[in-house]
Specification:
alpha/beta, 18 helices, about 45% helix, 13 strands
Length: about 425
Amino acid sequence: MAGVDGTLLKDLDRRGLINQATGDGELTQHLAEPRTLYCGFDPTADSLHIGSLVPLLTLKRFQAAGHKPIALVGGATGLIGDPSFKTQERSLNTPDVVSGWVEKLKAQVSRFVDFDCGDNSAIVANNLDWTQNLNVLDFLRDVGKHFSVNNMINKESVKQRIQREGEGISFTEFSYMLLQSMDFSELYKREGCTLQIGGSDQWGNITGGVDLTRRQHRGKVFGLTLPLVTKADGTKFGKTESGTIWLDANRTSPYAFYQFWLNTADADVYKFLRYFTFLSVDEIDAIEAADRERAGKPEAQGILAREVTQLVHGADGLAAAERISRALFSGDIAELSASDLEQLRLDGLPSSDLPADFGGQSLINLLVDAGMAPSGKPVKDALGRNAVLVNGQAVGMESNGDPASVFAADKALSDRFYIVRLGKKKYHLFALAN
């Protein structure tokens, strides 16, 4: 891992993780000794999603290099909403909702940095601590006077909103830059923080904080932006047909999380290895070279899936994801635990509760109603050739009129689950209603 000797920025650059930086090259010299840096995470939901992984892991990289990270959770800014490159005004959430999200985000960011490693132990801060009792007149006099409206409306993130016909920007969201800038100034004063990192969409907010800190404290501070993650095919990173990929295992299961990375396109996988893992760039280059020479499926996706799943969900989460993947691939589902099946029910397989009157229906109708086939004919054909499996056991046409036997309680996995496979690839998870 790159150290305080100045190799950190070189490593970030080789990974493609540096978008812009202030200071005209002075940042390298500044980081030659241990510094304090921060990154902000606004609570816009009860979990961060994988778009937050690049800055989270960058904080971890800085800490491994000897610097002290601050993860700032925006209890105040989350009440306002960042307008940066958003097409329309955000809906405002209530203070109680935001407060609950803040606590959940604190727990999430705490998994990525070390809070007990000596002088560079991480801390979590909440910007509500220095804003909730702030007098509006003091804010306007002490902070607002340092900002030129002319400069603010020329920031690209704001300009796009102002120029978009029929949308515009409210004064509430327009003031967001002042609040984020005040965060940098406050953390400089309280913690000696001299570097803010964030996504490239935060450049205007970060430079505002650099300028405010200089004006208020004559502080020499820096900003560094990271690239927003894009996919080679132009589709949005972190989105699937089933929705956003979250860091919370209760919103995106470790199995679905693992599968997301496993399905990374060849055109993206080596970039993602540089962004999202702690493998050295030389190791990643070697993986790419070996994949080019090897005939058949590359190994990079499997490495990426294992590395990132373990980083986010730990060794147990990775083990469960791999166990479920093996079981579904081989058809040997007996090794699946109750928690594995709950993961599949959450987002791993199409799933539904068995209707209360399922014993009086035909098996064909049950499977069609569950969406396993567009009509009864493919199900009937599959039953005729023993290509319908329930918990790994083939059922034939004779079972069509006896679903109560097929879904008998003593045949259930973990007392309530049935994995039905139709043909080679069509799966559905049925559960006995509680």
